[in-house]
Amino acid sequence: MNIEAYVGQKQIIGPDTVLNYLLEKGEIPSMIFWGPPGCGKTSLANIIACLSRKLTSNKVHIVNLSAASSGVKNIKDAVTVAKDKSKFGCKTIVFMDEIHCFNKLQQDIFLPHVETGIFTLIGCTTENPFYSLNPALLSRCRMFVLNKLTECNVTEILHKALEYINGKMLDVREKEQINNREQIKFHSNTKLKYHVDNNTIQWLAGACDGDARVALNALELATLARQVDGSKTSCNNDIIITLEDIKKGLIKTHTLSEKEANQSHHIYSALHKSIRAGKTNASLYWLARIMAAKEDPVNIARRLVRISSEDIGLADPDALGVAVHTMHGCQMIGMPECDVLLGQCTVYLAKAPKSRLIYNALKAAEKMILEYEGPQPAVPLHMRYNSDRKL
Questions:
Q1: What percent of the chain is predicted at pLDDT more than 90?
Q2: CA 55, CA 112: separation in Å to the nearest integer?
Q3: Nearest CA among 295, 298, 274 for reference residue 349
Q4: Which helix (DSSP H) or strand (DSSP E) does residue 54 occupy?
Q5: Where is each AAA+ ATPase domain found (predicted)?
Q6: pLDDT digits 0-9 by tens, 164-197
Q7: Within a 13 Å sphere around the CA of 150, how many CA atoms are in the beta-carbon half?
Q8: What are phi and psi of 373, to 5 degrees?
């Protein structure tokens, strides 16, 4: 496992980057990797851990944890081990996957140990660390943002995976040659040779939307399925993985519903901004994306209620009533029947005149209160409760 074999994220580990410079010097700081699923956060953390072992002649102890299945006790145990190891000149690296699963109070346990250098923390998260992580912890760690992998990156990863399982890419001529061979039963005493044509790899790289884990899982399932179906194996134990095999391995609900759910807040924002801009077709598109992700229709309607007041307001007071009635309708009949209600409300709000007067005025009042120096002014006597009652 070496840094040269890592695919993608050249903006982080390229020749002239800060992280690459630190790794060359053997200085591993506490750091947070933030990026979408399947972009290589865990792989990069493991490479850094292995590289630090190599640079220090194995004088590094690595603790692998996941915040989804670990607790404060696991961190305390790691601290105890780290203190014992430090007596013999051995450093400790704590790798915490899904660190955002720890709440702010749980994250506080890292602070004194990262501060004093008891261990080096490498955390990975798919959530925005400025919202999900403790600011005090962020200030003690270097943060690196990993981008979604490009289609070329995923293609390269799939090529490496094929080489690892004794496979190869095929052009059209080679594929026809293998297909024309006599099909006989699977030879268990001969090593299987997997073949995938370039078009299939390109399709898979594009369909996974930058998530290498999804692509690799689909390829693995396809190869396992063809192993079981020995009747489709040629006399030389050549197995061609077809596009149909890949599609069976790549479950559509995973690439759509799960990935959409992971970025639902971005899609809600797109819906909001499309309605604000009066773009009817765009608004319906983003509404359909949200519904395809199996979002609760009441949550969608609740967002429409907010939009009706924030972006339309006094320009069309009836918009608030339309949105509220839509939410009540969604509560009564649910999906799939309420999809038309949401569509009707979305189009109404997109076509309605816009006014942010109330929203801007309210924000100005809140800003004045926050920026006021000293105690807030007292309520005037004539405006107090029961001020009209005489002594």
A1: 24
A2: 26
A3: 274
A4: helix 41-55
A5: 27-149
A6: 776 555 444 444 544 444 443 334 444 567 778 7
A7: 7
A8: -90, 130
Residues 6+ apart with CB under 8 A from 17: 11
In the numeric block, which tokens belong to residue 326? 């839509």
Tokens encoding 159: 């090529």
DSSP string for 92-152: EEEEEETGGGS-HHHHGGGHHHHHHTSSEEEEEESS-HHHHS-HHHHHTSEEEEPPPPPHH
The 10s digit of each residue's pLDDT in 94-123 is 899 888 888 888 888 888 888 888 888 999
Note the pLDDT tens digit of each residue in 8-39.
888 888 788 888 888 877 778 899 999 888 88
In the chain, the percentage of residues whose pLDDT exceeds 70 is 83
- Amino acid present at 3: I
Report yes or no: 313 and 355 within 8 Å, Cβ to Cβ.
yes
What is the Cα gyration radius of the chain? 28
By the 8 A CB rule, do 148 and 266 touch?
no
Unique residue bearing structure tokens 């194995």: 58
Give Cα separations from 375 to 228, 303, 365, 378, 383 (angstroms). 75, 35, 16, 9, 19
d(CA 265, CA 234): 49
Tell me the domains of the chain and their CATH numbers. Answer: 3-145 (3.40.50.300), 151-176+190-257 (1.10.8), 260-351 (1.20.272.10)
Contact 77, 112 (CB under 8 A): no
